[in-house]
Amino acid sequence: xxxxxxxxxxxxxxxxxxxxxxxxxxxxxxxxxxxxxxxxxxxxxxxxxxxxxxxxxxxxxxxxxxxxxxxxxxxxxxxxxxxxxxxxxxxxxxxxxxxxxxxxxxxxxxxxxxxxxxxxxxxxxxxxxxxxxxxxxxxxxxxxxxxxxxxxxxxx
Length: 156
Description:
The chain is mainly α and 156 residues long.
């Protein structure tokens, strides 16, 4: 039996409102992405990432998403903007950005290899590191799960 990548990539893994804030930003940005300079991103980026320092963060986000959309191993499955669930592809991308921001380059490269072919790994990693670091700097609690998240497990 052949696997359906859309079905696999869209499998519900977690609730969006239970993710660390930075990961939630990445998932929401992926869902709203419609091309370079996407105005739709304005609604999902934290206010703290809107200043001068945020210009570099937004550029890194656009680079990251542009590489993935043009050169990904396969199209990423994105849930609807209002969907409360996080799909497998969305979770991998959010986790990748978080790991890249920690400086764990080998682990981040391993995750990136699931998303793009070898020659694009350094470009994707660079964009993810920049984005992750800017998100961490913009909102110091971005790596924590929201305090007002509903009780219960993060996973479905």
